[in-house]
Write a structure and sequence with these properties.
single chain, 436 residues, mainly beta, two-stranded antiparallel sheet, globular
Length: 436
C-alpha cells in the first residue's frame, strides 16, 4: 500500500511539471490587513452522564452515602476569539494568527464534576473560569504555508480534540504544501499539547502533568479523480508509539439524487522508546458504505482491531481516531474487537424545513480481549454496544443566522468484564459570529 501511495505522488509531481504555471495563493495576496479575519465562536454545552451500574460511585467521605453521585452533570460556556491576518505581499508572505479560549462554569458541583469541560481545583470542584491565549506566525511561498506556534490540527495522526466547550491546542511547526493540483503534502513537529480543560502549554491529561515530548508527522493526500481520493500519513511520538494511517474514499454517482460512498481507514501502531502508553502492537481498520437517496442516507460499517493491545491515542491528540465506529461514547477500538454499525440520516430541507436534520445509529462490538493489571487475559469474548440518537437545527436567516441547537443521546451497555453501563446526554448550542 505504501509503495502504491508514493508512486502516486511521483506521478502527480511528473504531471504537475508538464502543466503551465498558474497563479499561486501568494501572488494573489491582498495584504496583511486586507485579507485578515476576526471571528467569535460561542458554544454552550450541557452534559449528563448517568452510570447505570454505579460506575461513578467512588469514595467521598463528605457525602452521606460515603460515595460520590453515580452520575456526572455540568453546564458550561466556551468563548473563542480567533484572529487571522492575511499575508504580506511579495515572494514570501508573512502573517500571524492569534486566539483566546475562555470557559465559564454555569452549573456543576463536586459530586457531579468531571465531564471533561472544566479544570479541577484543589478542593475537587470545577474551575469557575479559565482562559488560554496563544498565537502563531506563518509564512507563505506560492501555495506552501509554514506555521509555527499554537494551533489547531486536523491530521489523521495528530488531531486536536473539539468534543467539549473548548478544543485542545497544539504547539509546534506545521508545513502544508498544495503546489500540485489535487495533491496536499504535510509535515510537522509538535512539542506540546494542552488539554480541553487546561491553560498551560503541555497538560494533555488536564492535571498539569506533561504528556507529549515530541511528535513528528508527515502525510500526503491525493485526489485521483473528482470521486476518488487516497491518503497516507505517518507519525513518531517520542517514547510512546509510531503510527501509519491510510485512507481510500470513493464516490459512485448513481442518479441525480442517488449515490454510493465507500470510505476505508486503517492504522498500524507499534510501541516506541519507553512505551509510556504500554506495549502497543495494533492494527485497526474500518470500512463504511453509505447510500444516499435524496434526503435519506443509509450507512453500514465494519471495524476490526487485532494485535496484542487496543488502538492507542490521546497523547497525539484526542481526535486522532479517524475510524467509522468512533462515535459519541465509545470508539470500539479494544484489543481484538470486531464491530458493526448501522446508521440512518435524514435532511428535512427536502420536506420544507431547511436546517433541521436527524441521525440514529447502532453499533455492536464483540470478541473483546480483556486483561488484568498483570497483563493476563481474563476474557476473550467481552461485548459492548451503543445506540445514538441526534437532532440538529440551524437557523437559516435573520439576526440569529447560523445559531444552532443540537441534542445528542447515547445509550451504552457493556458486560461487566469490559466496562459499565452509561447514558450520555448532551445539549449543544453554537453561535458563530464573523466580526471581520
Amino acid at each position: 500500500m505504501q509503495v502504491m501511495k508514493w508512486s502516486v505522488i511521483a506521478l502527480a509531481v511528473a504531471a504537475g511539471s508538464t502543466q503551465m504555471a498558474m497563479a499561486s495563493s501568494q501572488s494573489e495576496s491582498k495584504g496583511f490587513v486586507e485579507d485578515s479575519s476576526f471571528n467569535i465562536f460561542n458554544r454552550a454545552l450541557y452534559m449528563n452522564r448517568d452510570f447505570r451500574n454505579g460506575g461513578g460511585n467512588i469514595a467521598d467521605a463528605s457525602k452521606s452515602s460515603g460515595f460520590k453521585n453515580g452520575y456526572r452533570e455540568e453546564f458550561g460556556l466556551g468563548i473563542r476569539l480567533l484572529a487571522e491576518s492575511g499575508f504580506t505581499q511579495g515572494t514570501v508572505g508573512v502573517g500571524v494568527d492569534a486566539h483566546s479560549l475562555s470557559s465559564i462554569k454555569i452549573d456543576s458541583g463536586r459530586g457531579r464534576h468531571n465531564t471533561g469541560q472544566f479544570g479541577t481545583t484543589d478542593s475537587g470542584r470545577g474551575d469557575d473560569t479559565q482562559t488560554e491565549v496563544g498565537g502563531a506566525i506563518k509564512f507563505r511561498i506560492s501555495d506552501t504555508v509554514l506555521k509555527y506556534g499554537n494551533q489547531f490540527t486536523g491530521s489523521p495522526v495528530f488531531s486536536t480534540d473539539d468534543s467539549r466547550i473548548l478544543p485542545e491546542v497544539a504547539t509546534g511547526t506545521l508545513l502544508t504544501s498544495n503546489e500540485i493540483e489535487g495533491l496536499e503534502l504535510t509535515a510537522g513537529r509538535f512539542t506540546a499539547l494542552s488539554s480541553q480543560t487546561g491553560s498551560s502549554r503541555d497538560d494533555i491529561n488536564g492535571k498539569g502533568e506533561a504528556g507529549l515530548t515530541s511528535a513528528n508527522i508527515i502525510g500526503a493526500s491525493y485526489s485521483f479523480t473528482d470521486n476518488f481520493s487516497g491518503a497516507i500519513h505517518a507519525s513518531d511520538v517520542e517514547d510512546y508509539f509510531k503510527k501509519t494511517y491510510v485512507n481510500l474514499n470513493y464516490n459512485l454517482p448513481l442518479a441525480e439524487d442517488q449515490g454510493l460512498n465507500f470510505d476505508f481507514n486503517a492504522y498500524r501502531t507499534r510501541g516506541e522508546g519507553q512505551e509510556l502508553a504500554g506495549e502497543v502492537d495494533n492494527k485497526i481498520w474500518s470500512l463504511a458504505a453509505a447510500y444516499n437517496l435524496g434526503a435519506h442516507t443509509f450507512t453500514v460499517a465494519h471495524q476490526r482491531s487485532s494485535g496484542d493491545a487496543g488502538y492507542a491515542y490521546g497523547v497525539d491528540g484526542g481526535g486522532t481516531i479517524w475510524l467509522s465506529n468512533s462515535v459519541q461514547y465509545s470508539d470500539f477500538n479494544a484489543e481484538n474487537e470486531k464491530s458493526w454499525q448501522a446508521r440512518y440520516d435524514i435532511d428535512m430541507a427536502t420536506f420544507g424545513v431547511p436546517g433541521l436534520s436527524f441521525m440514529t445509529r447502532y453499533i455492536t462490538g464483540t470478541d473483546i480481549t480483556t486483561r488484568n493489571d498483570l497483563g493476563d487475559i481474563t476474557d476473550n469474548n467481552a461485548k459492548e454496544h451503543e445506540l445514538d440518537i441526534e437532532a440538529k437545527y440551524v437557523i437559516q436567516e435573520g439576526a440569529a443566522k447560523d445559531l444552532s441547537f443540537r441534542v445528542r443521546n447515547a445509550i451504552y451497555r457493556a458486560n461487566s468484564s469490559y466496562g459499565g453501563d452509561v447514558n450520555d446526554f448532551r445539549l449543544i448550542v453554537e453561535y458563530p459570529l464573523s466580526v471581520l
